Amino acid sequence: MIFPLIGLVFGAIFGGFRAKSRGGSGKDIAQWSAVFAIIFGLVGLFTLIYIERSLT
Length: 56
Hints:
Layout: H1 3-21, H2 26-55
Helix pairs in contact: 1-2
Protein name: PEP-CTERM protein-sorting domain-containing protein
Keywords: Membrane, Transmembrane, Transmembrane helix
Transmembrane segments: 29-51
């Protein structure tokens, strides 16, 4: 399934927009993108695990 990958991409985009809207520098944008990508990727991973476990 593709939920963790979607979470990574969406989290990176969301984190970048959030840091840019608050006036962050390039390093701030990169850090927030990475943090949100990790968080959303983990949420996607746990969603995938839950879906796979509930189907079997």
